[in-house]
Write a structure and sequence with these properties.
Distance between the termini: 51 Å
Number of strands: 8
Order of helices and strands: HEHEHEHEEHEHEHEHHHH
Number of helices: 11
CATH topology of one domain: Spore Coat Polysaccharide Biosynthesis Protein SpsA, Chain A
Shape: globular
Strand content: 5-15%
Low-confidence stretches: none
Helix content: 40-55%
Largest sheet: 8 strands, mixed
Length: about 375
């Protein structure tokens, strides 16, 4: 019985991390190449709370984009920041930058909505306050909108490698997730949600007529699916982000994100009917839900192998225990010291899965307003 449980858990984990990507890769299609001649007006909207450490650099990278200046502006919505975020934004000597201040903290979604209401542009780009834009990121995002069926396009949030366990693990995790989203797009559309740190959407399609205590990036994508629009992923549209300073910050960040996305599943449960929305259901269950269930399978697999009557079961228990020991040592490496990947990857994997496990027990916690994680200062 224990050996069958070990095998079942292993196959579930294998499908989640390897089987699903292989299916996407097998069914991907060659993408249509945009002409690049579509140059709509664009507003980059940044919802910021206490981002004085990096907001100026972020805005400057946007202004330096290789995109017609007359068609690009920046709207920073300060969610009642208590540091010098507002002051630093006001000091930016550029008429294309506008600061809006929320008098009372209302949360990221409310800030994004206010920025969209003020914008007069055709396309709005939602971006993290700490992400540095590559020169062609705006162009890569908006070129897809020449196709009228495209409602939103997400970009790739690359993590700057500082050598810490968090940055090493986050980079690999981000690369893996980027591949999944890209291959989903190559099957026609990615329905699992927009990339929260960077996505572009037709301004006329962005509205927050959903509960503010769910993930806006997921809810927005689900709305687009209901209305018949596609959501694509462009790996060439890049922003460079700093990782969380340590695994503790990354753990709490993951808990918040997963809780908001799980609530989105419940809020849009009408779409999770497999015989009515098979592709939507398949992508979201395989890409999201199964990954959040992996922590339970990992625990069951470890416990079952500890009590396995077979030699291979005991050997598998030892292998898992060594992996978790490496994770523990990796977690002890200080964030600003270079961590060997043999320690960094297990440490990050375990931290992320602990966050997924904790999320199930925090479903009713209020995450409407947010505080940015303490970021790695090495960038």
């Amino acid at each position: 019985m224990s050996d069958a449980l070990i095998l079942g858990c292993f196959l579930f984990i294998f499908y989640t991390y390897f089987g699903y990507p292989l299916l996407l890769w097998a069914f991907r299609r060659k993408p249509a190449t945009p002409s690049g001649g579509y140059i709509p007006s664009v507003s980059v909207i940044i919802a910021a709370y206490n981002e004085e450490a990096g907001i100026v650099e972020t805005v400057e990278t946007i202004l330096a984009s290789r995109y017609p200046p007359e068609a690009l502006d920046v709207i920073v919505v300060s969610d009642a920041s208590t540091d010098r975020t507002d002051e630093w934004v006001r000091r930016i000597a550029n008429s294309r930058v506008q600061l809006l201040r929320q008098p009372v903290r209302s949360g990221q979604t409310a800030a994004m909505l206010r920025g969209t209401q003020v914008s007069q542009s055709t396309i709005v780009v939602m971006a993290d306050a700490s992400g540095h834009f590559s020169p062609d990121t705006i162009h890569h995002l908006v070129r897809h909108f020449e196709n009228e069926k495209v409602g939103a396009v997400s970009g790739y949030m690359e993590i700057r490698d500082s050598g810490s366990a968090v940055s090493e693990g986050n980079n690999l995790y981000g690369w893996y997730d980027m591949k999944l989203r890209h291959w989903e797009s190559l099957t026609g559309s990615s329905y699992v949600g927009c990339e929260g740190g960077l996505f572009a959407i037709r301004r006329s399609l962005f509205r927050a007529d959903f509960p503010l205590d769910i993930a806006a990036d997921n809810a927005t994508c689900y709305r687009l699916y209901e209305e018949g629009f596609n959501h694509l992923f462009d790996p060439e549209a890049v922003i460079i982000e700093r990782s969380a300073r340590d695994l503790k910050n990354e753990f709490y960040r993951k808990v918040r994100i997963i809780v908001l996305q799980l609530r989105g599943f419940f809020a849009f449960r009408r779409l999770f009917i497999p015989w009515r929305h098979p592709r939507f259901f398949f992508q979201n269950v395989s890409h999201k839900l199964f990954r959040w269930m992996v922590p339970f399978a990992l625990i069951l697999m470890w416990v079952a192998s500890a009590f396995s009557p077979s030699l291979w079961g005991h050997a598998f228990f030892v292998a898992q225990s060594v992996f978790y020991a490496c994770a523990a040592f990796g977690a002890l490496v200080r964030s600003r010291h270079r961590a060997p990947w043999l320690l960094a990857i297990p440490a990050y994997f375990v931290a992320v899965n602990m966050g997924g496990l904790a999320a199930w027990f925090n479903l009713f916690r209020n995450y409407t307003v947010w505080s940015p994680p303490v970021r790695d200062p090495d960038i």
